[in-house]
Amino acid sequence: MLTVIDWGRTNYSDALEQQKSLVQQRINGQIGDTLIITEHNPVFTTGMRKGASKHLIWSAKQLAHRGIEFLESNRGGDITYHGPGQIVVYPIVSLQARKDLHAYLRDLELVVIQTLSHFNLESSRRDGKTGIWLENQRKICAIGVAVRSWITYHGLALNLNPDLSNYNGIVPCGITDGEVTSLAMEMTNPPSSKSIKSRLAVEFEAIFATIGN
């Protein structure tokens, strides 16, 4: 049984510490698989990819002016932006039954693809790039994960209606041959945050229920 918890608006660093606590609880068998949904205050984070910090464009003064934090994270991937209007999902789930991180990433991508399809927006993977794209050119969802004792944390960030101008402060995910978009940019009547969150949970449970723990 999957437990879904909506944390509401959080600071990235606080959410990371809470994730680590939940991972330990999952390792200890104190909780079952848990899906955390949240929305972060504005922050740029770098992942573990070498040279990720070089993809920060704005200076410390510019970051302060825009009210954006800059933090290093222990997830996979490059640099990305989190902020209001973006739905962030952190699965705290066991991969003991299938110790395959690559397959897990593909499953996370499928969750997003099927969620967007439910709202009549066609999306896809892009060869050699983690995340979800529209027409292979516009990135709508970033994915970066970590595992500890085969318990997952970190996850995905789906752009509903964030301030896309903040992406000008970075080279998003280190990708120079594409741009970042959102549901609000792509749809005349984008679904509500509540509808998206609910559908993400439905699709996640449907896909991961077949794996078992």
Helix content: 25-40%
- Secondary-structure-based class equals alpha/beta
Sum up the overall morphology in one term. globular
Distance between the termini: 11 Å
CATH topology: BirA Bifunctional Protein, domain 2
CATH architecture: 2-Layer Sandwich
Draw up the topology in text.
Elements: E1 3-10, H1 12-27, E2 34-40, E3 43-46, H2 60-66, E4 69-72, E5 79-82, E6 86-92, H3 101-118, E7 124-126, E8 129-134, E9 138-148, E10 151-159, E11 179-180, H4 183-186, H5 193-208
Parallel strand pairs: 1-2, 3-4, 9-11
Antiparallel strand pairs: 2-6, 3-5, 6-10, 7-8, 8-9, 9-10
What is shown here, in short?
The chain is α/β, with parallel strands linked by helices and 213 residues long. The chain is built from five helices and eleven strands; from the N terminus they run E-H-E-E-H-E-E-E-H-E-E-E-E-E-H-H.
